[in-house]
Amino acid sequence: MTDKVLPTQSGNIAPKPEKKQSEELHVYALMFGFVVLLAALTWIIPAGEYQRVKQGGMTKVVAGTFHTVPANPQGIFDIFAAVVKGWEQAANLIFMIFFIGAAIKILEETGVIGAGMTRLVSNLKGKEMYALAIVTLITSFGGAIGVLANSVVALMPLGLMLSKALGYDEAVGLGMIYLGAYAGFNVGWANVSTVGIAQSIAELPLFSGLWMRVFFHLFNVVIIIAFLYLYCKQIKQDPTKSLTYGLDRPAASTINGFGEVGEFTLRHKLVTLIVLVGFGAIIYGSMKLNWGISHFSIAFLMMGVAGGLTGGLGVNGTCKAFVRGLNSIVFAACVVGMARAISVVMVEGKIIDTIVHYLSLPIGSMGPVLGANMMYVVNIIVNFIIPSGSGQAVTVMPLMVPLADLTGITRQVAVQAFQFGDGFANCIAPTAGTLMACLGIAGIPFDRYAKWFLPVLAVQLLLGAVAITVLQMIGWQG
């Protein structure tokens, strides 16, 4: 097939210029657009606050104390200041991502990743779907007990490596680790930071209603595994359907795996041992030692340095690989700061409490079934402005408990409406720093991810509404 041609003024024939493809909106532009939009809303939405009291280790909202305060509309200078403050407030997470990228690059240059993944490919030949399901199920249990929340970012490199070993793209790695963990976290039956706090505020026994939530967890993870299974079949049949197709690194090279590499040497085995010890320390520290983001950064730094020196890179080689790793992960790290800037502009403009207050008002005029579903909707919306599960619990639950008592909604259902609303939105809210960090590490643009995951989210939200309706109709007390 020949190109269409046009005559030039000199009579020669010139090719017809091809139509330029529209360029995808950069995620930084998308995040900054949200900041600008919310800054504009601070000029429209009245500023307001609730009184808060300190009880033990929690700062809770006092129901019925909402009042207006002097407005603090955000101007042009404040918009840019919100970006800077967002990066400052997210500094711990940003630097953890830097250390992850640096450590992985060092390990990659020792040759251990290529050699190890190639060996894993041969061992998993024909068992790819079993591996996918098992890893997703394991991470979901980590999320259900609250171990894998922000710390899931630290496990993303393992998921991406495993996905390549299985012959799939970065989206499958994201699915096994992030979507798997949050399939459990979003309906977690032993998650102290969400359902635990919500039940304590609602004066319910800790983790009451356990078996119903275990059922929700298992049902939810089956949905995620089925979604990933169908996606894997799709990209195997047509690699152009990959979520990473057409990006800077073509999806075809990603899906083909690592190819042939040299022998798995003694050095490789020692570096592998260092990696296993490092990730073992991260998991143990999360479960038993209450490790936070700074501890994960230390673990990755130690893993990278020890791996580089043991793997034969030497001091200079390890340092050069470290810098190359930092360079490769800049985009992923800094997008977290851009996401945090959205929250900053709402806090500075004093509109978060106002939004929560007016969202909660219609619930009191509805019957118990509609009211419970309205609680669910309100919590979905609030999650976009308060992405922290514990932060949302201490803000929303003190308002929801008296409303539940007034309208005949059981307190256990009110807790479930909070948990579903807070949980499902975690996987789509652009203000969720953990989501944005995982997308950045995987190299997947937010708009592509959102379009890919929205059908699953729609199913989850619909089933959540059905569950809330049935639980309220049977008067579920847990």
From TrEMBL:
The keyword Zinc does not apply. Keywords: Cell membrane, Membrane, Transmembrane, Transmembrane helix. The chain crosses the membrane at residues 25-45, 93-117, 129-159, 171-190, 210-232, 270-287, 293-314, 326-347, 424-446, 452-474. InterPro entries: C4_dicarb_anaerob_car-like, DASS-Related_Transporters. It is found in: Cell membrane. It holds the Pfam family DcuC. One of its GO terms (cellular component) is plasma membrane. It is a multi-pass membrane protein. PANTHER family: BASIC AMINO ACID ANTIPORTER YFCC-RELATED. This is Uncharacterized membrane protein YfcC, ion transporter superfamily. The lineage of its organism: Bacteria, Bacillati, Bacillota, Negativicutes, Selenomonadales.
